[in-house]
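Input for the complex:
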Amino acid sequence: GEDVEQSLFLSVREGDSSVINCTYTDSSSTYLYWYKQEPGAGLQLLTYIFSNMDMKQDQRLTVLLNKKDKHLSLRIADTQTGDSAIYFCAESTGGFKTIFGAGTRLFVKA
Amino acid sequence: DVKVTQSSRYLVKRTGEKVFLECVQDMDHENMFWYRQDPGLGLRLIYFSYDVKMKEKGDIPEGYSVSREKKERFSLILESASTNQTSMYLCASTPGRSTDTQYFGPGTRLTVL
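Predicted:
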């Protein structure tokens, strides 16, 4: 069945780059997403990539997609304490359902 | 900006009580969703609705029901709350029938004693 996996925790120092990785199983995924959840809040879309793209850059964020390996990564350059949050990887295949990973908790040390 | 609101941020109920969680979106979205979020399990889909009065079971519908009488409002009902339903409940909506970004409410943290 469909599954999205990601590590549960990542710790980096302020100013370093963070790389959050995700693997998914459904090869028919159309869109892949990264959502951010700050403490006490719901999820907010951070960025997304269409499945026919390899890379997308948006300011400090870089998304890399390796479709062959079904691997998605999110790189945050110059990580700040305000980036501390839970980051969810998600995939959808054009239907109603979006499959979410368990979330990676990013902890930024000052 | 799309706004998705949920009726309560925190709720404490007793085992066996009937619980209503309300969600309202103000952007005329077609689709609405209820998820529960538990540590290490991510978001699991309980029910979704693609139109008024239409509903579909998600991955974990047992113990829950839903109601969508108006397009903007999607209610999650726990007929008889149990302690294993203690969780964070998130509502989301999307504009159309294709693969759209999900817009989330702030969540309701439900504790069942």
